[in-house]
Amino acid sequence: MAYEVIAPVITPFVRGAPDLEAMKAHVKAILDQGVDAVFACGTTGLGPSLSLQEKLAIVRSVSDVTNRAIVQIGGLNMDEVVALVKECNDRDIMGVASFAPPYYQRIPEWHLVKYFQSIADLSEHPVYVYNYPAGTGKDLDASFISKISVTGIKDTSENLAHSLEYKRKLPSLKVYNGSDFLAATSLLVLDGTVASAANFVPMLFSKMKRDASAGQTASLVKAQFLIDQIVELGRKYGYLSAIYDITSYLMGYNVGGPRPPVFPLEHGEREQLLKQLARLKEQAGEMSK
Ligand code: ELE
Predict the structure, then answer these.
(1) CA nearest ligand 1 atom 11, residue
(2) Integer angstrom CA distances of residue 54 from 18, 33, 61, 159, 277
(3) Given the CA of residue 134, which atom of ligand 1 is nearest to it?
(4) CA pair distance 38, 28, nearest whole angstrom
(5) Inter-axis angle of helices 267-288 and 202-214, to 10 degrees?
(6) CA distance 51 to 75
């Protein structure tokens, strides 16, 4: 078993622009602490809000520090999608991924098949499908995936049976689940997890991998429940915003903040969050040993 942990990495912003140096340092830090790969420009990375130039710069920066990166290149502008795949072709990375465009409107399924197949035809790297039906309104299930030639799927669904169905029907497909709440389970029964919490408790994920391989399921579940508490706390404030404060606090360095329309936490909110986080930080430290 691989027990792979992939972090959908945050994009640090400073004064409204991606802070590429901070991003590189953060990517290095989480990889050093046991994360296996990063997933850039995804949901947590605020990919849909990035311009083409910003995404190109992120591809270059991230691939300067690691070849263990999958880049989310999907979008609504096909010229930009093509430009990103071509940039990725020139870089040493693990793969490219895309969610289902156009996120908010339905198009016939064969358009989506053609979209993914054209990415697969153009990409020199393995291609992953990012299934996020709650976000895009379209479920790219096992029957859809069987129509295209891709390497893997990141299934963001809290329905584990849905993720398992890919494995059952398409055994050679790499299957990851993208829900933080199913991270431990995904390590055990799928190829791994794409968990946003790997941005802020990478050492706990490292420990979970050890637990998974040693069959220590009680300890694995304990770590999962701690992650759940941190994610639930962050969700109270808007998770895409709170994750910046959670990551800065738990990792001990500043990862900046999001950018509008994802607004940073207000002062009172940040204080409240950090107060509640202090106890969980202690537990995470103890548990990661
Ligand atoms: C998950 C998102 C959304 C992880 C990414 C990911 O950020 O690109 O559970 O809806 O908050 O897809 O974090 O997950 P929920 O891969």
Answers:
(1) 179
(2) 7, 27, 10, 33, 32
(3) 10
(4) 10
(5) 30
(6) 10
Q: How far is the CA of 38 from the centre of ligand 1 (A)?
A: 13
Nearest protein Cα to ligand 1, atom 3: 43
Tell which atom from ligand 1 comes closest to the C-alpha of 194: 16
Residue 275 designated active-site: no
Catalytic residue chosen out of the listed positions 154, 174, 207, 209: 154
Q: Tell me: the pLDDT tens digits for 217-243?
A: 999 999 999 999 999 999 999 999 999
Instruction: Locate the ligand 1 atom nearest the alpha carbon of residue 156 and give its number.
Output: 12
Instruction: Kindly list the protein residues whose Cβ atom lies closer than 6 A to any atom of ligand 1.
Output: 8, 39, 42-44, 132, 134, 154, 156, 178-179, 194, 196, 239
- Sequence-distant (≥ 6) Cβ neighbours of residue 202 within 8 angstroms: 5, 7, 29, 30, 33, 34, 35
Instruction: Please list, residue by residue across 62-89, b when 16 or more beta carbons sit within 10 angstroms of its beta carbon and e when fewer do.
Output: bbebbebbbbbbbbeeeebbebbbebbe
Report pLDDT digits (tens) over 132-177.
999 999 999 999 999 999 999 999 999 999 999 999 999 999 999 9
Structure tokens of 114? Answer: 């053609």
Q: What is the DSSP string of 147-209?
A: TS--SEEEE--S-HHHHHHHHHH-TTSEEEE--GGGHHHHHHHSSEEE-GGGGT-HHHHHHHH
Among candidates 288, 278, 285, 286, which has minimal Cα distance to 204?
288
* Whether the model pTM is above 0.90: yes
